[in-house]
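Below is how a single chain appears once it has passed through the pipeline. First comes the sequence as given, then the structure the pipeline wrote out for it. We keep one example in the README because the format questions we get most often are answered faster by looking than by reading.
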Amino acid sequence: MRITRIFARHFLSFGDSFEFTFQSQKGTVLVGPNGHGKSNVLRLLKTLLDVLESRYLNLEEPALYASRYADFGKEIRSYEIGFDFALHSATERDLLQKFIRDLISFPNYEVFRRICVDSNEKNVEPIPERRIAVQNFLLNYLEIPEDFCLDNGTLRYRVEPSDPHNSRLDIEFPDMGLIIPLRDGILIPKVNNGSYSGKPLSQVYFESLPEKTFKQLQSFLAGETSTMPTFSKLNMKLISKTIRDNSLNVDLELNRREQQKETSYIRLSLLQALKVALHGSEIVKLSDLYRKLISESIFIMDSWHQNTEVILRPCTPDVSLIQNRELPLYLFLMKNGTFSERTKYDTIRSQFRNLTGAEMDVIVKHRTRILRQNETVEEQYITLTTNEDIPMSFSGSGREQVITLLTLAQLDQHIIGIDEPERNLHPWFQSRIGIEWIDSLTQHLVITHSPFIAASFGIEQIRRVYMSNKWSAVTNSIDSHQISKSGLKRLTQSSDDFLFLFAKCVILVEGYGEIFGLPIWLNQWTNREFGLSAEALGIHIQNATGKSRITSFISLYKQFHIPWVALYDADILRKFNNKGEELSENKKIFRELASMGLMQEDEITLGEKSEIDKFPIGTDNNIFLRGNKLSDKWETLKVDPDLKQEARDTVGKGPQMWQYIADHMKVPKEFETLFARARELGNVTQ
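Resulting structure:
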């Protein structure tokens, strides 16, 4: 089994909660804001399955993964992590070795801003990408659960050239103090096995700190206060210098929070020590913690700075079951855990009791989801409740808590993890590959910030999305029968940020009068009828000026099953039925619509005015015509005796003129019919 990761830059930032839907034998898509743990899910599966070399997991061996590309598009903060990096050549291995040496010799925040590649070196990719990739790897490697190479609290450093065809490296860290800056400047020293001649902690690590700061740190580490101390850059340098000059090995004494009779020693590295302190967990010896991890195979992926977590627990401590691929895994989700077949709920209760010592109730819910073309699908959900405070899903979501029972056998054969595949892919192609994933027999785990891919997987709850207008189109991968290259270019040039993807229905309009005037009339109508704005009702007006662009948009909407109506000028049919310069272009438009099954050719021969004013036309009754342009309304308004001369002089032409017309006129009846049809098609309710 292999999990392949495909990297991409972010096009989007989300304002809504993290949605996670799992369907057996179908694609799985994770979408949500940065830092909500999407990559943690895939990362944990990689650790469990050890897919790089297609071997079964050895819990006593650290698993390092190398990928040709690192995710360079993310905003990097000192406490955020990534875990793939480019490491396929001897040069790259040398760079990593050099960077780690720099990190150890100068262990403070500034090291992450240093350039690890000399400017005169050749055949090297851009420096920032290298630095970020290595930084991501280093920060991640020290995180649970991949940090299974702990040896009584010490990590050793070794980067040795190996088989040039093998991208796997053995990397450990030296037996010395090391500081890594975390959120808001929090520093947690690495604590090693052994002691330092009884010298107090303050004189070893923090002798250069102000007394007040040291006391805050001491109280925080001892569990006496939840206030986290912060350090200035100057103090960080002083601390790192103390460690570097002394090469110290010490024990860090931490008292238990409540009723602690004897002092316990904890020998955790870096983030592990911080996690224990932040979460208020019971403080134990590292050897005990390590033994617990190995014996029970409990893996915790905790995006602690967002207070979210995903927990995977096997139902038995027998690691040998992994080799037989029969090890059940509890995957705690935030919402919509779906079972492919009926599960023995008593077995779940028993396994959960054995794991946690807590009882749980299982509530089974069935829901019929209606698809298009009168198709339905039965979905089964299970809600769990327990009598203990067991972390079961993403906290703070306020949503229904559910759990999914999986086995490695269910994840066997063809599971492909795809992380943000939208990089350098046009939105149309993003939707296409999403559809292909769903239709395939392979099981995919897709992490994406792309609404196009999310829409392919049926994720409809994404809202308030901003998409960058810097698209890089891959036109050679697009089916010319769906969207032509010229149509694709038109789509990417002006698309209103592609917000139409999140509308209940789209109104396609052409002409500047409609673009600027129609939104005013639409909001007047929706406020009058429903007391809500058009945006709140999910009706979006799309600028499709240039008649041939309409067919390109319609083709794109079909990929996402987005309802739409199109508003044409009536003269388009007049020109079609009368010889003129635009005859060939208009004929092409209607033939394209007919080829898409949206119109019949005998429906496009209207020519008389009495017939033109009759609308809608089209197979789906979603193509509207109007007899008069909005500009005709302006001609009428200009001679209105009630119109002040000042208004005539200042309005002029352009957007203000069309907006002025819409503001000073009632919504025409034909447009009310258009709006009502859009609401009906989108099934928009109050």
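The chain is about 35% helix and 15% strand.

See the next section for the split statistics.
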